[in-house]
């Protein structure tokens, strides 16, 4: 049984991962919305972000190889196209549609609609048997989603086109994070490290988004005075600099997301993301002057109640699991390749502490 010091360290580590994720997620949301006011090419922006993430992850892999002396994982084409491609396609559609929607909707409406992703993640997690059916879990999701809807009710400007884009991105996001959890927690693939996961995902994501970009933005971008028809070097440098800053934020967001989901689960990431979205709404209200009614604040209280219930349930079930088995696997009678050692609440049993600490040191390096 873990001592109080170990439990405190694990709690602080989890809190640190969540806050790390919050900084980049909230930052890139406001940054992309600000950038879209003058730069109306969201798909091109996403392609630049993907290219920068690939370059930064490649440099990070090289630095990790030099530091540890261990070669990084490289996947064969067959495994790469069959195992990684579905996750990459879902990820690029989620990100592309989300960025595209900023041309039509406000941050508040985007945040409210994007919160529905937790419902789709729960649905696909149950299908893939990454989460056990639990009526209390459904109550938590309903409380959080209903509270967040009340929190933003009548405080946003509705746009049907942007709303459909975000709702579709939320649905695809449910598939994305469920597949990501499966991908990262399959030990035989060797993608437990977030940097290795991003390195392998970005090329397929770039290729998958490129046709959509060429169809929607190729011609208009080629005639834009901000890039290809620029008349002065300073506007060009300004555009490249702002896109690069967004790329760095996107790399930090991807790393923090993958690190959090590899240590916990896709559903835990979504629950943490709900509170992040509440913080985003509060910042949007204070920075942009949105008016909040009594119904909005009541929704805020309901949302926090759902989060508190989730935390209490996690603590209760984690206590029970530490007394029993500490490893859960996907059904593998017909397909042994689906075996999946899941991390419950980001932790395994005490007999795995040495391996977990070694892996953590590798990630920190």
Automatic annotation (TrEMBL):
Sequence intervals crossing the membrane: 12-31, 43-67, 103-128, 135-153, 159-179, 199-216, 236-255, 267-288, 294-313
Stretches with biased composition (Acidic residues): 353-365
Xref: InterPro entries: Sugar_P_trans_dom, TPT_transporter
Keywords: Membrane, Transmembrane, Transmembrane helix
Disordered: annotated span: 327-365
Localization (cell): Membrane
Membrane-protein topology: Multi-pass membrane protein
Coiled coil residues, start to end: none
Domain Sugar phosphate transporter residues, every copy: 14-309
GO cellular component: membrane
Pfam families: TPT
The keyword Transmembrane is assigned to this record: yes
PANTHER family found in the cross-reference section: SOLUTE CARRIER FAMILY 35
Protein name in UniProt: Sugar phosphate transporter domain-containing protein
Protein species of origin: Scleropages formosus (Asian bonytongue)
Taxonomic lineage of the native organism: Eukaryota, Metazoa, Chordata, Craniata, Vertebrata
């Amino acid at each position: 049984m873990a001592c109080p010091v170990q439990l405190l360290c694990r709690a602080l580590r989890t809190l640190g991962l969540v806050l790390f994720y919050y900084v980049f997620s909230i930052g890139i949301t406001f940054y992309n919305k600000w950038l879209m006011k003058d730069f109306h090419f969201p798909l091109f922006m996403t392609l630049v972000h993907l290219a920068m993430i690939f370059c930064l992850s490649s440099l990070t892999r090289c630095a990790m190889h030099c530091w540890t002396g261990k070669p990084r994982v490289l996947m064969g084409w067959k495994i790469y196209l069959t195992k990684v491609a579905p996750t990459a396609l879902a990820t690029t559609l989620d990100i592309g549609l989300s960025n595209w929607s900023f041309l039509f909707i406000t941050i508040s409406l985007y945040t409210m609609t994007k919160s529905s992703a937790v419902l789709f993640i729960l649905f696909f997690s149950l299908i893939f048997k990454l989460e056990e059916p639990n009526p209390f879990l459904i109550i938590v999701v309903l409380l959080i989603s209903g509270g967040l809807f009340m929190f933003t009710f009548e405080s946003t400007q509705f746009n049907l086109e942007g709303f459909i884009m975000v709702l579709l991105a939320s649905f695809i996001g449910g598939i994305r994070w469920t597949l990501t959890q499966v991908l990262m927690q399959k030990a035989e693939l060797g993608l437990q490290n977030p940097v290795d996961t991003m390195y392998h995902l970005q090329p397929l994501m770039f290729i998958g988004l490129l046709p959509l970009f060429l169809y929607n933005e190729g011609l208009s971008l080629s005639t834009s005075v901000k890039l290809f028809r620029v008349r002065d070097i300073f506007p060009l440098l300004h555009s490249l600099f702002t896109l690069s800053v967004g790329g760095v934020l996107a790399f930090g967001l991807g790393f923090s997301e993958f690190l959090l989901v590899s240590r916990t689960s896709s559903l835990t990431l979504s629950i943490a993301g709900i509170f992040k979205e509440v913080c985003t709404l509060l910042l949007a209200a204070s920075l942009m002057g949105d008016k909040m009614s009594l119904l909005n604040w009541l929704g805020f209280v309901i949302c926090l109640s759902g989060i508190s219930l989730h935390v209490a349930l996690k603590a209760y079930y984690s206590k029970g699991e530490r007394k029993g088995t500490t490893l859960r696997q996907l059904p593998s009678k017909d397909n042994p390749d689906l075996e999946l050692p899941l991390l419950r609440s980001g932790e395994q049993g005490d007999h795995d502490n040495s391996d977990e600490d070694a892996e953590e040191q590798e990630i920190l390096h």
